[in-house]
Amino acid sequence: RTAGEVMFLGGEITELSAHPVVIPFLRSLLGEDVICTSGAYARSEPGHPGMVLHTDSGGDGAPMQAVRVLFYLTDLTPETSPFRVIPRSNLSMHAEGNTYKRYLEHPEEVMVCCEAGSAVIINQKLFHGNYPNHSQHPRRMLAMAYRPAWAGPQSDVEAWNPEQLARLPEEVQQLMTDRNQRRWDFDGGNKPPGMAGDAKGMNPSRWDS
User: What is the pLDDT of residues 80-118, one digit of tens each?
Assistant: First the structure.
């Protein structure tokens, strides 16, 4: 069971969109200009059969780069529909890593269990899903999607409702700018003036620690 656009519900759910720990991390990961593109609540009831391995990428409305932050509201145990993932599958350029594919299972998939209140951050190209819910209570989660401002969708998506935006806290509004914003430069030429000589966001050394 799911519900969309939870950012507009108000209260703590809305505030979660601008989580004071997660957003600084995303700005370090994606750059200073981060856009929140969607938010959903997902509830897996007892008896839920599990979700197959898939990605959140693909489709004309999908941005070129994006991450999803999964805020778990329930303790994930092996019985309570835990997260499943194929580590580093987002790096695959093989045909079997086609982001439109789905897999029932994979011999190298990993089960991830965590406590309620935990946040799991995944690349949109990562193959993931969840296991069946064999417990007696539902597994609850909020999934928020973010992208860097430059990485717009291939085709336009529906704009936010301006009246709904106006009712959001300022820190959330700052993350919900134009969902069709793009910063592409196809005509820069080989050596345009004012080229940078440093790009810390691409430093191989940022992965050393």
Answer: 999 999 999 999 999 999 999 999 999 999 999 999 999
Which of 135, 82, 134 lies closest to 110 in space, CA to CA?
82
**29 token code pair:** 């990961």
**Could you count the other beta carbons within 10 Å of the beta carbon of residue 183?**
11
Give the CA distances from residue 96 to residues 39, 83, 124, 202, in Å, rounded to whole numbers and listed in that order: 29, 21, 16, 27
User: Which residue, among 86, 90, 119, has the nearest Cα to 104 in the 3D structure?
Assistant: 86
Tell me which residue of 136, 112, 117, 139 sits closest to 44, measured CA to CA: 139
**How many whole angstroms separate alpha carbon 124 and alpha carbon 119?**
15
Give the count of beta carbons closer than 10 Å to the beta carbon of residue 83: 22
- Cα(204)–Cα(59) distance, rounded to whole angstroms? 30
Which tens digit of pLDDT belongs to each residue from 35-75?
999 999 999 999 999 999 999 987 767 888 999 999 999 99
CB 38 within 8 A of CB 145: yes
Q: Mean pLDDT score of the chain, rounded to an integer?
A: 93
**DSSP assignments along 33-79, one per residue:** -EEEEEEEEEEE-TT---EEEE-S--STTSBSS-EEEEEESS---TT
- Is the pTM of the predicted complex or chain greater than 0.70? yes
